[in-house]
User: Fold this.
Amino acid sequence: MDLDLTAGGFCGVVLAGGTAARMDGVDKASVELAGRSLLAYAVDAFLDADEVVVVGPDTVRTARPVTFVVEDPPRGGPVAGLLTGVDALLREPRLVGVLAVDMPRVTAATMRRLREAAAGRDGAFLVDGDGRRQLAGVLDAARLDVVRPDREGQHGMALHRLLARLDLAEVPATGEEAVDVDSWADLRDLRR
Assistant:
C-alpha cells in the first residue's frame, strides 16, 4: 500500500449505534465531556479525513458536515457498523479510519500515528497497555473489501473475526487514548 499522509483518499467511520447497556441505554454520542459531546471528539479525530460517516442515530449536531446512517437491521455490532459506514461513503477511499464514539481521547494525532503504522500493511489498530485491540484503527479499503462477509454474515460478527486474515500493525496507546466510556464511572473518571 502506497500511503500518502495527506487527506486524499482517507475517510472516517464513527461507530455510534451501540446499546450503551451499562449506561442505561443512553445515546453515547450525546454524552458530554468538558462541554462537548463524545461525537464531537470522535469527528475531530478525523480532522484529516476527506469525509466522515457516523453510523448511529442522527441525534447530535456536529460542527463539521457528516453523513449519518444506521445499519439494517440496527444495532448489528461493529462489523455491520463499519461496513455500513464504508458503503455510505461518497468517495472511494484508499484508507478507512474506524473509531468508536466512546473514545474521546483519540485525536487526529492518534489517527496520523495509525496511518503511519499502516504503511506497507493492511492496516493498524490502537492497543491498550495489556495489548488488547481497541476500536480505533485504519484499514486499507481494498483489503477490507477482500475479507468482507456477505450482508447476512455481518450482523453480530465479531470484529476480530473480520480482521483475522489481515496484516495489522499494533500501535500502543499513549496517555488516555485507549480509555473508553463504557459506564457512568468511566465518564466520571475522565472528568477528573
Summary: The mean pLDDT is 89. The two ends are 41 Å apart (CA to CA). DSSP finds seven helices and nine strands in the chain.
